[in-house]
């Protein structure tokens, strides 16, 4: 067929602007900078419904929504589901200016848990009181989507205000004098700004999209045309513990209800939930069970050259359940933190596609 007569593929179209403007935050393993590549690869595949089984920052689920797919975003942590509810599952709901103002109003009934628990650890006393106040007022919103928008804005505010975006070391952000705007803004200023950003992401793609908190092995694969998998694979060095890095955001998402605070830790970490993907002794079996669970769906796995098991073994496992397995790769550099000694991991990022 002559080039001029070739049908226009989705991958030939530019990535939607709304995806480029997605309110990203620093997140371990984030695929935000890889979204144009993902858009290109996914655009060559035929599917109407998709599951983003490890939602994380929510950017891939949002890409799938912008591609007019029916999307389910899932994660076993609470704060990614608040973000996915605000963006992927949101059919066009926004928080009004009046509601935004009420979220920041003082209520003498509000609790002071954050102020009492985290004084002298991450933020100023004024900012801690602000977090308590807004967390209390969020509960007054009757629309669950609006509650998630406000919670997502509060989560992103805390992540942006934290010097390295992680919560492993105690310290007042004010002691970092490197001129960054994120550290100059107060949490209140961040919150207003990020409420507006999440409002801007709201749109209806014509499908009933969902965000569910669930372990990957509890997800129902029925009716899923394509599953996108980005599990926390075991790295060759360091660890893949999201709770260690983002425990404050996880606690904030549920106001620390139902979580165990490790009082002996300086930063008041919460207990790490178990995942078999975190350990070499269980990771191999976890990948095999996961691939088997979604054997009837097109499988797209994000993987890295520094992961365990290695690429050949991952391909072998996926080939048990799919007759066609292809691999595309590209160089990628993960950035953790902004300080001079932060790890810069140069790897080859893979997209491994399995089809029946």
TrEMBL record:
Keywords: Methyltransferase, S-adenosyl-L-methionine, Transferase
Pfam families the UniProt entry points to: MethyltransfD12 (PF02086)
Catalytic class of the enzyme: transferase
Protein name: site-specific DNA-methyltransferase (adenine-specific)
Catalytic activity: a 2'-deoxyadenosine in DNA + S-adenosyl-L-methionine = an N(6)-methyl-2'-deoxyadenosine in DNA + S-adenosyl-L-homocysteine + H(+)
EC number: 2.1.1.72
Highest taxon listed in the record's lineage: Bacteria
Residue ranges the record marks as coiled coil: none
